[in-house]
Amino acid sequence: MKNYVKLAAFAALVVLASSCGASKAKQMQMADNVKVKCTPAVLSLVGENISADIVVTYPDGYFAPKAILAVSPVLVYEGGEVAAGEFKYQGEKVKDNYKVVSSKGGTVKEKVNFKYVKGMEKSRLELRSKVLYGGKVYDVPAIKVADGVNTTAHLVSTDGLYSFKADEYQDVIHEVTEAQIMYDVNSANVKGSELRSESIMILKQALKDVANDPRYTLKGTKVVAYASPEGGQSLNAKLSDKRGASAKQAWSQITTRKGQKNVEVESRGQDWEGFQEAIEKSNIDDKNLILRVLSMYSDPAVREREIRNMSQVYTEINKSVFPDLRRARYIMEADYQNFTNEELEELAEKAIGTLDEEGLMRVAANTDNKERKAALYKRTVDVFGSNKGAFNLAVLALNAGNNAEAEQWLAKITKDDADVLNAKGVCQLRKGNVAAAEALFTQSGSDEAKANLGAVAIIKGDYAKAASLSSYMKGSNKGLALLLNGQVDQAEKAMTCKCAKADYIRAIIAARKGDKAGVKKYLDSACSKDAALKARSTKDVEFAKFI
Q: Residues 146, 3: contact at Cβ < 8 Å?
């Protein structure tokens, strides 16, 4: 908003060599046509700086050719005042190096800057001037050109956005147990020795465990049969089918449980997938050439022909790769119902030593008692060296406002993931180390870190960036970012928090929209919740027209 101020006090600007008291008074009356414009009319805080553009326009016949005008912009505030240097202007007959203002009139433009000091929210910007003429100095009365500093950006919360790491406790554990039987070349007969292999013994025990433990639910059993990719696709498809049938028949010898008798059979024919995996893991010469053949050709017959053409390599494949692909896999899937929250709580009370890291993390997550929560997290650190436990202890410290303790716990973490980097950034932000906080938030890249970068942008006065990050932000900061970027309607919609600061920002939004009733409603609510905001409101230029 542009503010035009008539500069009556500049009447003493021109002092004529032969003037008398009457002519000086007459010259003062001519000053009615001098105009001063300050942009913004209400000074604004951007980052920690206050800046303004001042434009003074002099009319024709006003500026004496031999006069010098020295002007000092001064910001006067509660507790002190500070000048933004001195600007000098000279008439066209003065032999110096200042800006020249013609006697026919002219305009001078200056940018002034002040470093914010507490108390400047209630202030005034004035021009203090002196006229130098004929070896004498004439004081010009101070002229106020702007009133107050808008410090709405100081409403930004620097608490930071962060959250506990969730436990990874599995309420239901899905278990898959596999065994396999191997076949001779071109054979579908199951050898007795195969049913006594180690993998079959493990499968048998798993089947017993599922049958005997009510926490288990059998989800399915399956046979997957294959043939090695040699001898032609049609032949191997039939051989794979026969192996599936024989493996299914042998299943009855593996389990005697009635509920486990049903088994699904799947015949996959030539095992090109297993072949490729075996080649990738092997030390066979020219294995890259073999893999290239697999990538170039999809036709099984062409693949087999090209590989057979590598006679020496094929001999090695036939010896070390194909035998492992003549097989049938037994796959059992079961769900294990883990301890319920109630059972975990009982174990924590009576047999805490039986709980693993994730069990302890779940019990801690379920309690609202801060001391008990901390004790459980500390146990995860002491017993399991848990990084998650240490992180959550840092979160508890941040919630309690104990920044130093939070930093101590974060320092114990052995790997800085995105959450840890963000939390370290929060610690720096709370200490006022904005640059260090910004670097950590950027390195983190998490959604919470992006929200915190929005707060940093507000602090630095980059309101466009803050608004661009508002989708990640929560609470009053979200609406504040949009408000400072001039998006008043969007800011109003974004304000969902019911806290005192949010109500205060709602009052500012109402003020900018000229809603007097809204200003009173939200300001009364904010002030009733927070005495500090009540004190602030009496000096806040946002409400100058309303209170």
A: yes
* pLDDT, tens digit (0-9, with 9 covering 90-100), for 171-217: 999 999 999 999 999 999 999 999 999 999 999 999 999 999 999 99
Collect all residues with Cβ–Cβ distance below 8 Å to 28 and sequence separation of at least 6: 8, 11, 12
Q: Where are the beta strands (DSSP E) in 365-515?
A: none
Q: Using an 8 Å Cβ cutoff, are 479 and 502 in contact? A: yes
User: Among the residues of 463-515, which ranges form H helices?
Assistant: 463-468, 475-484, 488-494, 500-512
Euclidean distance between CA atoms 142 and 149, whole angstroms: 19
Q: Which of 1, 36, 29 is nearest to 14 (CA)?
A: 29
Q: What is the DSSP letter of 255?
A: -
pLDDT confidence of residue 32: 60
Percent of the chain that is helix, strand, coil (3-state, to 5): 50, 20, 30
Residue 332 CA to residue 263 CA, distance in Å, equals 9
Closest CA to 232 of 328, 324, 299: 299
Under a CB-based contact definition with an 8 Å cutoff, are residues 189 and 229 in contact?
Answer: no
- Among residues 412, 388, 409, 387, the alpha carbon closest in space to that of 400 is found at 409
For residue range 332-370, list pLDDT tens digits in order: 999 999 999 999 999 999 999 999 999 999 999 999 999
Using one digit for the tens of pLDDT, what is the confidence trace for 33-70? Answer: 778 899 988 888 888 899 999 998 888 877 788 888 89
Contact 73, 84 (CB under 8 A): yes
Which pLDDT score, from 0 to 100, does residue 242 have? 96
Longest dimension (CA), the chain: 131
CA 462 – CA 476 distance, rounded (Å): 17
Distance from C-alpha of 152 to C-alpha of 155, rounded to nearest angstrom: 6
The bridge status of strand 136-147 relative to strand 149-150 is: unpaired
Alpha-carbon gap, residue 313 to 291, rounded angstroms: 13
HSE-CB for 429 with a 13 A CA cutoff = 31
Strand partners, 108: 56
SS (H, E, C) 338-352: CCCHHHHHHHHHHCH
Q: What is the Cα–Cα distance from 69 to 55, expressed in whole angstroms?
A: 15
Q: How many residues are recorded in the chain?
A: 547
pTM above 0.90, yes or no: no
> pLDDT value at position 412?
96
Where is average pLDDT lowest: 25-34, 61-70, 441-450, 451-460? 25-34
Residue 210 structure tokens? 């599922």
Residues 81-138: pLDDT tens digits? 999 999 999 889 889 999 999 888 889 999 999 999 988 988 899 998 888 887 888 7
Q: How far apart are CA 221 and CA 427, in angstroms?
A: 53
List, in order of start, the domains of the chain with CATH numbers: 3-150 (2.60.40.10), 154-168+340-454 (1.25.40.10), 172-337 (3.30.1330.60)
Euclidean distance between the first and the last CA atom of the chain, given in angstroms as a whole number: 20
**In this model, does residue 286 exceed pLDDT 50?**
yes
